[in-house]
Design brief:
Order of helices and strands: HHHHH
Shape: globular
Number of strands: 0
Largest sheet: none
Distance between the termini: 17 Å
Structural class: mainly alpha
Length: about 120
């Protein structure tokens, strides 16, 4: 039963990345424009590469293909995206709080990815 719960958790965690990456592709123009507005470096190629990584590594994590590597790729992606796109320290007021909340959630996701990455190594 515990293994089934663990598998479900990995499916959900990986699925979130598949969903997000797919949504970025479906709304590519709008997301790229938002990134450009926030002075994100090379927004279109970075968005395409990041979204492809989210889908591929998220799927690998969800279905159990090379989970430690998929988790490591998503940890690096999430950390880099958080620093580059959720730079709350540049803002103030409600906008700062909103962006900081998203940044904090991403830190928790990194924690979950660390656990996911080592789950097959026990």
């Amino acid at each position: 039963m515990l293994d089934l719960i663990r598998q479900f958790g990995l499916l959900v965690l990986g699925g979130v990345f598949v969903w997000a990456g797919t949504e970025h592709f479906l709304k590519f123009g709008a997301v790229a424009a938002q990134l450009a507005e926030r002075q994100f470096p090379a927004p279109k190629p970075m968005l395409a590469a990041g979204s492809a990584l989210e889908v591929a590594a998220g799927l690998a994590l969800a279905i159990g293909i090379a989970r430690p590597y998929a988790a490591a790729a998503l940890i690096i992606f999430t950390a880099a995206a958080s620093v580059l796109a959720l730079d709350f320290w540049r803002y103030s007021g409600a906008e700062r709080q909103s962006i900081r909340n998203a940044f904090t959630i991403n830190i928790a996701v990194v924690g979950g990815l660390i656990l996911a990455g080592v789950s097959d190594l026990q």
